[in-house]
Each structure stands twice: as C-alpha cells, then as structure tokens.
Design brief:
The chain is α/β, with parallel strands linked by helices and 297 residues long. The chain contains four helices and 34 strands. Helix 2 links the parallel strand 4 and strand 5.
Length: 297
C-alpha cells in the first residue's frame, strides 16, 4: 500500500487539507492494512466503519459527519464516493511497474501478447496461441494458459456519483500459482482494492470462465466451463464448481465443497457441503423437495 497524505490529496483531488497521513485505502469491511482512509456513502455503513479498527480516516458529507465516531479523521467532502474512487483510480494509474521477468524455459506461442512491464513468467510455463497477458500478472512454475485467455484485464468497476460515472482502474495483480491451469477463453480480472486475484496451486479452470477481481481459490480446485465467479469470492481447497454455476460477490466456499451444475450461490457454503439450485441450498434438501413436488403433481 502507498502512503496517502495531504500533498497527494491536493495533487489527485484538489483537496486542501493539512497534516493528513494514511497508509492506504479501504472500504468499510476492509480486512487488510492499518490506518486506512475509507468513505461513508450511505449512512447504513456507519456502524461498520466505526467498528473497523483498520480505518482511521473517512471521506464523509457534512450532513453525515456526526455518524462517524470521533476517533476517526473526518475529511468533509460533497460526494465521498467520488473522492474515494477517484483517489483509488489515481493510485492505480500512478503505480510503479517492475520490468518483465520471463523465463527462457517457458514455452510461449509466437502469437501471445505480453505487456511490456509488470509481468513475471517462471520456468516450465506453457502458454497457447492467442493469449493476452497484461500488466501485474505472475504465472508460476509449470502453469498452463490455454488458447485465447486474457489475464490481468480491468474488471467491471464503474461507480455512479454526483459527478458522473467513475470507471476505476484496478490497482492489484493476478497470480497463477504453480501447476495451475487457465482454460480457453477465460477472463482473469486484475485484483482490486488491495486484494489480489489468485488461482491456487494445481487448480484447473475449464473454458469460458469469468474469474472476477479479487477471487482467490485454494489448491486442487476444479472449476468447470462457463462458471461466473463475482468479485472477492474466496474458495477453499479441493472444491468442485459445476458447469454454468454463478457465485455472487464476497461469498466464501469452504474446503471440499461441491457446487452442482447450474447452481446460483448467494450465501456462504460450509466445508464439505454439496449445494444445488437457484438459489443454491444443500443438495439433499433440494432433492427431497423435488421428489415431494413430483409426488404431488
């Protein structure tokens, strides 16, 4: 994380402040970092901000300032959402990139497009035709990237504000771990809001998967074709996700869980649980309900 001080607030946002200094940005539910600057765009999130010890400063409207506890530094602005996401966009656009580090022992097809900086490709990586590798992507030893995949693209992060829509540049990275596989025509979105996008060791992705910003999977997961994983989903080890499944944002799926085909997952899945349906419920409950309906038909 980069230090945010009064000089940066003036440069990026035109704000006149004195003596402010924070260690990074974070939303109300931020779980990483300390001394963060956040924003209060809706009064319902005030308690979450006040209870989060990682947050020390808040962009807030004057009419909502009393909702923020006195131990937080209040930065009074007209549209907190605009100021927060414009600052996040500034941090992402001015982020320093390291030179590329690409192993001579990697097998990369001539048609692959690789960004000019910020890319790491280790030994024994295999990349098929038509792949695009953008900045801030690391592909670990022995990983495979199948034809037509795109890694490190900015995600669908557009914020409606009183000053218009802010399209926010992503500030994070993508890490494809050792012996993982990215399937054909996958979209692997760059990390966002200080949370990296991670494909775990020996995890295998089938074709046409949308792997949104901040999704993190554990080891040995199998994720079948046309699955959609929304932002900041957390997936444990040895998880199966069936074809055509949709997992909503910030959902946690425990170790060994099994998501059957076409499921829409809108709440956390405990370790070892098998879920089915739209919206997904425990598989045994789904089947019992299905049999009951069939008998009454």
């Amino acid at each position: 994380m980069r230090t945010i001080d009064s000089c940066m607030l003036a440069e990026a946002l035109g704000l006149k402040t004195q003596g402010l200094r924070f260690c990074g940005l974070g939303v109300s539910c931020a779980e990483d970092g300390t001394d963060l600057l956040s924003f209060l765009g809706d009064a319902k999130f005030a308690a979450q901000i006040n209870d989060n010890p990682r947050i020390r400063g808040v962009f807030v409207e004057r009419t909502h300032a009393d909702l923020v506890s006195d131990d937080k530094e209040k930065v009074i602005v007209e549209d907190p959402k605009w100021f927060f996401f414009k600052l996040l966009d500034h941090l992402a656009k001015t982020k320093q990139k390291n030179p590329n580090s690409i192993s001579r022992n990697a097998r990369i097809h001539d048609s692959v497009t690789i960004a000019q900086k910020g890319v790491v490709i280790e030994d024994d990586v295999y990349i098929e035709p038509g792949v695009v590798v953008l900045e801030d992507v690391t592909i670990r030893k022995g990983a495979v990237v199948r034809a037509g995949a795109v890694l490190g693209v900015d995600g669908f992060e557009h914020k409606k504000t009183s000053r218009g829509i802010v399209s926010v540049t992503h500030d994070g990275c993508v890490v494809v771990c050792k012996e993982a596989e990215v399937g054909p025509l996958n979209a692997i979105i760059k990390g966002f809001s200080y949370r990296s996008t991670i494909i775990g060791e020996q995890t295998k992705l089938d074709a046409h998967i949308h792997y949104a910003h901040g999704v993190q999977s554990g080891q040995r997961c199998l994720i079948a074709a046309s699955t959609i994983l929304a932002g900041h989903v957390s997936i444990g080890d040895d998880v199966w996700i069936g074809p055509g499944s949709v997992v909503s944002n910030r959902i946690s799926i425990g170790d060994g869980a099994f998501i059957t085909l076409g499921s829409v997952v809108s709440r956390d899945v405990p370790p070892g649980q098998r879920v089915t349906g739209n919206f997904a419920i425990p598989h045994a409950v789904f089947m019992a309900d299905l049999k009951k309906k069939a008998q009454s038909a």
